[in-house]
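Researcher: We're teaching a course module on how sequence relates to structure. For the next exercise, students receive a sequence and then see the predicted structure as tokens, so they can try to spot secondary structure elements on their own. Here is the exercise chain.
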Amino acid sequence: MPADRTPIDAQATDARGFLILPVRSFSALYNLFSRTYSYRWDEAVRAGRRNAQAMRRDAYLAALEQERVLPLTRWPWEVEADPDDIDLSNPKDPYSEDRDHVRRLLQALCRRTPSFSQLITALGSAVFFGRSGAQLAWTQDTVAGEPRWVVWAWEPVHGDAI
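Model: And here is the predicted structure for the students to work with:
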């Protein structure tokens, strides 16, 4: 971890700054005894962990996934305010400046995320595999002159590992 950044809580993070390992998550620990969260939804895991890994490594399936997911990284994006929150009947909306400030701040925070297009690709894998996520490591940094929590690292968590 860079020396100029401080993690959320040094006691709760591993050496890389990630908050919790997936196997130590609430759902994994609780499910160990209660079997509340079903694991049967994933056909590949039901057939065997090796089959799930073989599917992930298959070149044809990877090409199909890329065909669906890679356009997500090429599209232009921006953060927009919810149209339902904007009062069009009031031309002197008292919250318009605050709304615009928050919109710009959120957009700046997203742009500071390392390898943002790769993060979108990893999250977009859910379209093809059914489930996908990312483990985020947060740190405090200055954005727009104020200290904010920003993502400084992330790791993909694949559907068969959630």
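Model: If you want an answer key for the exercise: The mean pLDDT is 75. Strands lie at 6-7, 132-143, 146-158.
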